[in-house]
């Protein structure tokens, strides 16, 4: 049994199919199928039920995949112990969080070129499951939505000011852009402005900024997000509301995870 075989099986399980797993692993679908069949032969049992439209784990697969993930993580830690900081960090991000994530990732690449980051979107209620089932190594959420004690180590990031971003028009004459329920920025704005009037709702920061730039709306954004759109006028509040992000991770973090946390902080 080889680590490559374990990685292929885990990719098929997480992606839900051979084609998606092949794309993630940057290889051909036939290669993925061959590797899985060979491992199933060695184990003497199928790991997946294959249908026309989807692939699901068999009971043997349900037992095998968590152990395979643990073996891959142990191998990653062993490799990191004798080499420069390297490896893959699986980062779960709740919708609407960390608008300057590209800056963070650019800093990480410059400091540690051997560290790769795989991102997936998580709803706040999925953070605990993502960590306990080893689907992600680090999850970004808001400081008030961290999972219960025992689900991971919580690192609070520096709090950030929320600002009003608009065109040059008087902001009181236009509606406020809203974001979908479940978005962290939506929750922060709801708390800060419970009596605001009807809003336009979008599910993309760039779309919100576009509406504001066209003079059709105003939007409340973290200062780091507003800075991405220099065409907007930024107004500070008299008593600026703030929000705080948190990075949640397991206690046995690898050097690659520690490097990402250092960039976030």
Task: Draw up the topology in text.
Blueprint: H1 3-15, H2 18-25, H3 29-43, E1 48-50, E2 55-57, H4 59-81, E3 87-93, H5 101-111, E4 115-121, H6 127-132, E5 138-142, E6 153-156, E7 160-166, E8 176-178, H7 184-192, E9 199-201, H8 205-213, E10 219-222, H9 223-226, E11 233-235, E12 242-243, E13 245-249, H10 255-264
Parallel strand pairs: 3-4, 3-5, 8-9
Antiparallel strand pairs: 1-2, 5-13, 6-13, 7-10, 7-11, 7-12
Describe this structure in words.
Among the domains are: 1-82, Winged helix-like DNA-binding domain superfamily/Winged helix DNA-binding domain (Arc Repressor Mutant, subunit A, Orthogonal Bundle), CATH 1.10.10.10; 160-243, Periplasmic binding protein-like II (D-Maltodextrin-Binding Protein, domain 2, 3-Layer(aba) Sandwich). The protein has ten helices and 13 strands. Strand 1 and strand 2 form a beta hairpin. It has 265 residues and is an alpha/beta fold. The protein starts with a helix and ends with a helix.
CATH superfamily of the domain at 160-243: Periplasmic binding protein-like II
Global Rg? 22 Å
The name of the CATH topology of the domain at 160-243 is: D-Maltodextrin-Binding Protein, domain 2
Overall average residue pLDDT: 83
- Secondary structure: helix percent: 40-55%
Element string (H = helix, E = strand): HHHEEHEHEHEEEEHEHEHEEEH
Largest sheet data:
5 strands, mixed
CATH architecture of the domain at 160-243: 3-Layer(aba) Sandwich
By DSSP, the count of extended strands is: 13
CATH class of the domain at 160-243: Alpha Beta
**Ends apart, CA distance between termini:** 39 Å
State the secondary-structure class: alpha/beta
Question: Which residue ranges are poorly predicted, with pLDDT under 50 across at least 5 consecutive positions?
Answer: none
